[in-house]
Amino acid sequence: MMKNKNTMTTYEAVENLTSQMLLAAKAEDWDKLTALENDCAKYIEQLKFYENVVPMSKDASQRKAASIKRILADDREIRNLVSPRMAKLSALMNSSQNGKKLNRTYGK
């Protein structure tokens, strides 16, 4: 049962981090979002270790499913907030690259 406790604790940590990530995205605090995303990735690596080691009780499975639903909902909202920002950055990068090409071709 210890593995189940570790699994649930880790899912709850990921859920907490994705909630914080959503707040950072809403605040457009991209540095904080990136740092939280790195922390979250570490917990997800732990889940790969804990997952499927010991069968979960029905209660633990239900808690896990609810946690995953909240994580996915936050992730979806984060993506909705980040996507426009990523599109702007991509456009800026393309513009900068095109400017460099033009400068090399026609510049002094």
Task: Give the SSE map.
Blueprint: H1 2-26, H2 30-50, H3 58-106
Describe the structure.
- The structure is a single chain.
- This protein has 108 residues and is an all-alpha fold.
- It has three helices and no strands.
- The chain has helices at 2-26, 30-50, 58-106.
- Helix 1 (2-26) runs antiparallel to helix 2 and helix 1 crosses helix 3 (58-106).
- The model has no long low-confidence stretch (mean pLDDT 84).
Keywords:
108 residues, 88% helix
Q: What can be said about this structure in brief?
A:
The chain has 108 residues and is mainly alpha-helical.
Mean pLDDT: 84
**Series of H and E elements:** HHH
Strand content is under 5%
Q: Uncertain runs with pLDDT below 50, 5 residues or more?
A: none
**Over all CA atoms, what is the radius of gyration?**
20 Å
What would you call the shape? Answer: elongated
